[in-house]
Amino acid sequence: MSVERLNTVLQQNLDNLYSKGTAKGAEMVITGMKSAEGTKGPRYYIEGHGNKEFIKMNSNSYLGMSLHKDVIAAEEEAAQKFGAGPGAVRFISGTYAPHIALEKKLAQFHDREAAMIFSSAYVTSMGVIVPLTTKETVFISDELNHNCIIQAMRLSRPVAKAIYKHNDMADLEAKIKESIGKGKRALVVTDGIFSMRGDNVPLAELVAVCKKYEDQFEEGLITIMDDSHGVGAFGNTGRGTEDYCDARVDILIGTLGKAFGINGGYVVASPTIVQYLRETAPMYIYSNPITVSEASAALKALEILDSPEGLKMLAHLRAMTQRFENGLKDNGYETIAGAHPVVPLMVRDTKRTSELVAFLTKNGVLGTGLNFPVVPKGAEEIRFQVSASHTEADIDFVLGVLKNYQDTH
Fold first, then answer.
1. How many angstroms separate the first and last alpha carbons of the chain?
2. Is 390 a catalytic residue?
3. What is the pTM of this model?
4. What pLDDT digit, counting tens, does each position of 47-61 carry?
C-alpha cells in the first residue's frame, strides 16, 4: 500500500526532528482550573500531575478576559439564543447580528471606517496579504516577522521581495529604494509586537520612512501591521502599538484570541479595502466565521477594555510586567527591556533552556522554552507572558523559583 511507504518516509522525518531536538513533542493537556483565591491568581491542573497546581506564565490572555464573568455570561447567553455554531460561511447564511456589531465596534475602537473578522489572526494575515499582492507587487518585510507573514509572502508570490534587518529603519529605507521600479505596488509589512522578544516596531519612524517614497510606486506604498500581541495589552488605552507610538498604518491586523481572551482575527482599514477583501479573500469566503457566542463575548471584552475597569486592568498589567522584569534583573538574569508583557529570559543555550523549563514545571510554573529553529542559535530563551490576572504574590513566587534555580545550579 502506498500509505505504508508514506508512513515510512514521514516516520523518518519525525525521527529526524526528535533526534535534532526540534520536535514540539507531546502537548501538555490542561484538565481543570482553580479560580483566583486570596493573594493567588488562577491555577491550572495538568494531565499526569494529579492535584499539583500550576501558574500560567505562558498565556496570550494578557488581560485575563477569558475568565471574566461578564465575558463568559455574554458567550453563554448568545449560545442559548443563536446556537453553538454559525452553520454556514458569511456570504450564504452565516452572518449574524453580533458579527456585524463586532465589526462596527472594532472599527470604532481603532478609529477606522471599516473592519472584518476572520476565523483566526493567522488566517487574517494570509487573507489580507495574499489578495492584495499582485504580479506587480513588491513585498518588504522585517526579518523577524511572524510565520503567518512569511507564509503569506510565499503564497502570494510577489514580483520581488526584500527583507530588512530587524527594526532597522535605515535598512528599510535602503530596501524601499532598491524596490523602486520593480513593481507598481509596494507592501511594507511588520509585526507590531515581535512575539518572541516582546519588543515593538518603531512605528512612527517606519511610517515616516514609507511616506517619503509612497509616490514612487504607481499603486502606492501600503503599510500593514499585524499587532496581534499588541492590541489589548499595549498602550495607555490598550489600542496597541499605534497607541504606544502615536502613529498608524494603512492596514491593521489584530486578534480576538489574545488580550480579548476569545477566538478569531480581524482587519481594520478603508471601506474599499475591506469590501475588496470580502469579495476576494478565500480564507474569508470559504470558511465559517467565529461563532456568534464568540463574537458576543468579544464585544463584551471590548466594552470592558474601553471602560474605567479596562484602564485599571492595563495599569495592573503594566505594574506586574515591570515587577517581573525588575525581579529578573535583580536576580542576574538577562532580559530584553520593554513595556510589553512578553518578558523573555535570555538563556542563549539549548540544553540549559530545556533544563530551566523542566525546573520551572517541577515547581509549578509554566513557561515556554524557545530553541533553534524557532529562534536563531544563540538566542535561546524562555518566553514569559505576564497577565492582568497575575497578582504580586504570583510574580514573586515565580521569581523565587528562578532564584532557587540559580542558587542550586
1. 52
2. no
3. 0.94
4. 999 999 999 999 999
